Automatic annotation (TrEMBL):
Pfam family, one: HSP20
Similarity comment: family membership: Belongs to the small heat shock protein (HSP20) family.
Name of the protein described by the UniProt record: Hsp20/alpha crystallin family protein
UniProt cross-references to Gene3D superfamilies, sorted A to Z: 2.60.40.790
InterPro entries per the UniProt record, alphabetical: A-crystallin/Hsp20_dom (IPR002068), HSP20-like_chaperone (IPR008978), Small_HSP (IPR031107)
Organism: Streptomyces kaempferi
Residues in SHSP domain copies: 24-136
Amino acid sequence: MLMRTDPFRELDRLAQQLTGGAGTWTRPSTMPMDAYREGDEYVIALDLPGVAKDAIDIDVERNMLTVKAERRPVAKADDVQLELSERPLGVFSRQLVLADTLDTERITADYEAGVLTLRIPIAERAKPRKIAIGGESDRKQLGG
């Protein structure tokens, strides 16, 4: 139900981890995610530790879902000297192409403990349904 949009995105993510490069608005870093089906909805969980809720932007246009977030540096006093900085800062982004069978009008989002969880219901038209089989006796009753 979900399709990756860029086959080289994972290579970019690995290169950024090795070089310690921070994401920018023109070249954002990726964010790790899990995607799975749970009953009649798809669940997408994105790791965004240390990102403020108001620094997350979720957008859906037709069947393209875009999540952008920014982890900003923590304000420090003038007398603080940074000894080690391993947590990546900057802009993170993920784009997913959603199948037509998902209901993009009813996506919900929750953010707890650094994990953004999106729930996307499966559209009613895509759910399995039983089809009744008619016979000759049915046609005669209808005036056929």
